[in-house]
Amino acid sequence: DGEPFLVHNVDILSNVDLKDFFHHHVASGCKATVLVSPRQTSRYLVFDGQHKLCGWVNKKTGETKPRDFVYDEKRHRCLAFSGIHILSPDIFPLMEAPCWGDQFSIIDFYLSACRSIDICGYAEEGLQLIDIGKPETLAEAERFINNVLK
To answer: Global pTM?
Structure first.
């Protein structure tokens, strides 16, 4: 047992209310909660009507994960991962399987586990995100910070 904890990619700036995000995760009972948004991308996490992760789709190529997942735009909601998530400690034993090794994609892990444990999506109204992992986004990040701090 123990307290859930936040995993936050260092190159993401956002206006998410982390306290509300954390409380939502705890109340949901999910093993992991990923911050998502409806922003445009080609690769999406796919959620069911209860905000549970059920797959992944690349809208450009039609590729889906897990391998036998069938995307249905009438039943599923596609949202983009933000690089921010909360994990409950009891998810870690699942990461110790030999297939994962020392380094692995957390999204691939979530997709492999989503049929056996609840991994939830959290889409905050008015969420703003900037990926500052590229030098050309630094000026945009400065404007973002100045607007958030007003």
So the answer is: 0.89
Would you state the torsion angle of the CA atoms of residues 124, 128, 129, 132, taken in this order, to the nearest 10 degrees?
A: -160
Residue type for position 17: D
Query: At 83, phi and psi to the nearest 5?
Result: 90, 10
Using one digit for the tens of pLDDT, what is the confidence trace for 15-30? 999 999 999 999 999 9
pLDDT more than 70, % of the chain: 98
